[in-house]
Specification:
19 strands, RNA endonuclease activity, 8 helices, seven-stranded mixed β-sheet, RibonucZ/Hydroxyglut_hydro, about 25% strand, MBL, Rossmann fold, Xnuc_lig_assoc, alpha/beta, Putative mRNA 3-end processing factor
Length: about 325
């Protein structure tokens, strides 16, 4: 069976005819298989949803307990028969519960990677390459300019700034799902000996990580602390929070950006970031190319980001590559 017969593109998103389900549809559908809990992949309104248990918990927290008529939890690596196809959820290394979706039918294997990263992360299961015939890959940072350094080195910049500016609260801009908890996990792993303080919007996702026994550094709600107690402390907050009224009670806040986009100086300046840290939950260019080699697929479909550059590189490797140009994908971390 040809890969394009296993997986087709419809207005709602990628569709598997052999089992009658969509993967990460951008709107509510009858049956959805979801790679992870970020809103640009996990829409509300599906009649039935299949995802990992952590992704289900994240979806319920964001969309409400009644957002889906039926939810089925999938275990990583376990085979599930759906119609004429067998599917498996394989680790994607992106955030808690994130998975690649493998579909096997008619002697053909297709892998939809969702969002993924190859860098180490103590808060989620590491990405596992799966040999396949068709590989659907993101390309958020799909340009050769994007090469992300190890996270530990970026945290050393943060520690140095805390020593240099001990009277300033260091407000690290992070997304509520994945980035915040990765920073918390890495701080714990590298022996940081103080708690961190969280903006209220980060608490629900952090509690879900703890419910799934993910080790995180101790934390307290920032709003519960006296202003003076936050001098020289790490405060995690949404990227825009340092420009919002919420930040007025912080002592001399120093804006820290934690994103793969911080490699571009103009991005940091436009966001009024004083200390840019290159921290991404996506693959950089080298990791994307490495993964394409490892999965050994002859057909590559590219989505979500710098599609054309990665397609061009794949074609230069002799692969059948094309951009998907799926609408409805959000700005990545």
């Amino acid at each position: 069976m040809r890969p394009q017969d296993v997986l087709t593109l419809r207005p709602q998103g990628l569709y598997c005819p052999a089992a009658d389900f969509y993967i990460d549809p951008t709107r509510g559908v009858e049956r959805a298989v979801v790679t992870h809990g970020h809103s640009d992949h996990c829409a509300r309104g599906h009649q039935a949803m299949l995802a990992t248990a952590p992704t289900g918990a994240i979806a319920r927290a964001r969309h409400g307990k009644g957002a889906y008529d039926t939810f089925q939890a999938a275990e990583l690596g376990a085979a599930i028969q759906m119609g004429d196809a067998q599917i498996r959820f394989m680790p994607a290394g992106h955030v808690l519960g994130s998975a690649q979706i493998t579909i096997e039918t008619g002697g053909t294997r297709v892998v939809i990677s969702g969002d993924y990263k190859r860098a180490t992360d103590p808060t989620c299961t590491a990405f596992e390459p799966v040999i396949c015939d068709l590989f659907v890959t993101e390309a958020t940072f799909g340009l050769p300019v994007y090469r992300h350094p190890p996270l530990r080195g970026e945290l050393q910049k943060l520690f140095a700034s805390l020593e240099t500016f001990p009277n300033r609260a260091h407000v690290v801009g992070v997304y509520s799902l994945g980035k915040a908890q990765r920073i918390m996990g890495e701080l714990l792993a590298c022996g940081y000996d103080r708690p961190v303080y969280l903006h209220h919007s980060l608490i629900p996702m952090t509690q879900i990580y703890q419910n799934f026994d993910v080790p995180l550094i101790p934390w307290e709600p920032a709003a519960d602390m006296p202003t003076e107690a936050l001098r020289g402390q790490i405060v995690l907050a949404p990227p825009s929070a340092v420009q919002e009224p919420w930040a007025r009670f912080l002592p001399e806040p120093l804006a820290v950006g934690a994103s793969g986009w911080m490699q571009v100086r103009g991005r940091a300046q436009s966001r009024q970031v004083e200390l840019p840290l290159i921290v991404s939950d996506h693959c950089d260019w080298d990791a994307l190319c490495q993964t394409v080699h490892q999965v050994q697929a002859e057909t590559i479909w590219v989505t979500h980001g710098a599609e054309d550059a990665l397609v061009h590189w794949c074609q230069g490797q002799g692969l059948d590559a094309a951009p998907l140009r799926i609408a409805g994908r959000g700005v990545a971390q």
